Amino acid sequence: MARSHYENFPVASLALPRRIRRPVAVIYAYSRTVDDLADEGDLADTERLDRLAATAGQLEQALAGAPVTDPVLRATARVIRDFQLPTRPFHHLISAFTQDVVKKRYEDFPDLMDYCRRSANPVGRLLLHLTANDTPPNLADSDHICSALQLINFLQDLEQDLHELGRIYLPRDEMESFGVTEGHLWNRVSDEAMVDLYRFQVRRARDLLLEGSSLGGRLRGMFGVEIRTIVAGGLAVLDRMETLENDVFARPRLNRNDRLRILWRGIRDARGRRRGQVTPPA
């Protein structure tokens, strides 16, 4: 699944502790499965909604010990039981992707953040539960990081989300404030108003990502390295975004050299952490 979809960050990478790589892969498979039910293929909206509702019901059946045919749901139920994970994050994911089918516009930033709370934050929270790091400060910082990464993804997919899915993940009131219309997105217009709005979104995503970045300094071992590299990767994408002036609809991608630098940043900061001198994010 990970290889068949473009992902900004590695899934169940070797940076994660060995014992949680499989459950992380299962969580990814579950998330990708329900996301694809909302996005992929040529199904009618009613059929998408029916399949998402059926998935939620089958997960409950699997948790109750009833047989289900879907291998992803069987594996998900087993991971939930084996690692005593909360079920709410899994239902939040279905809730968010169900919303994707029926809701195509967002009135303001709190409205958009409520979607992020259910579409992105559950994955970070589950990782913390898997590693017994689910303290309130860690969960709060994880929410900041995951929401920031979701916002970055929205900015990367401005054109694709609208043309392929009919969705705009920019707050309507902020579009109006900057003088941006839906025509800017339909016609790929990168004028001064669109660039100003885009840069505002980039700055806010950066602030949110930095707000949660202390999580990587608190987590020990390879999991801490993973979180620090994720934050560094998000910042690297934002750096690329800030250079987009002529075409904010171009999707910035990280190359192999970028990824090596990001990994080195995570390892270097881990070494600095042991010396008590963690480098703050740039």
Can you describe this structure?
- The protein is mostly helical and 282 residues long.
- The chain contains 14 helices and no strands.
- The chain has 2 domains: 102 residues, Orthogonal Bundle (Farnesyl Diphosphate Synthase); 179 residues, Orthogonal Bundle (Farnesyl Diphosphate Synthase), CATH 1.10.600.10.
- The longest helix has 22 residues.
- It is globular, with a radius of gyration of 19 Å.
- The C terminus is likely disordered.
Brief overview:
The protein is 70% helix and 0% strand. It is mostly helical and 282 residues long. The protein folds into two domains: 1-102, Farnesyl Diphosphate Synthase; 104-282, Farnesyl Diphosphate Synthase.
Topology:
Blueprint: H1 18-39, H2 45-63, H3 71-83, H4 88-102, H5 109-119, H6 121-130, H7 136-156, H8 158-165, H9 172-178, H10 182-186, H11 192-212, H12 214-218, H13 221-242, H14 256-274
Helix pairs in contact: 1-3, 1-4, 1-6, 2-3, 2-4, 4-5, 4-6, 5-7, 6-7, 7-11, 7-13, 11-13, 13-14
Q: Tell me how many strands there are.
A: 0
Second CATH tier, the architecture of the largest domain: Orthogonal Bundle
Helix amount, in percent? over 70%
The count of domains is 2
Question: What is the CATH homology-level superfamily of the largest domain?
Answer: Farnesyl Diphosphate Synthase
Radius of gyration: 19 Å
How many strands, which pairing sense, and closed or not: the largest β-sheet?
A: none
**Unreliable stretches:** 271-282
Element string (H = helix, E = strand): HHHHHHHHHHHHHH
Alpha carbon gap, first and last residue = 33 Å
**Share of β-strand residues:** under 5%
Instruction: State the secondary-structure class.
Output: mainly alpha
CATH topology of the largest domain: Farnesyl Diphosphate Synthase
- Mean pLDDT reading: 87
Q: What is the global morphology?
A: globular
CATH class of the largest domain reads: Mainly Alpha
Number of helical segments with 4 or more residues? 14
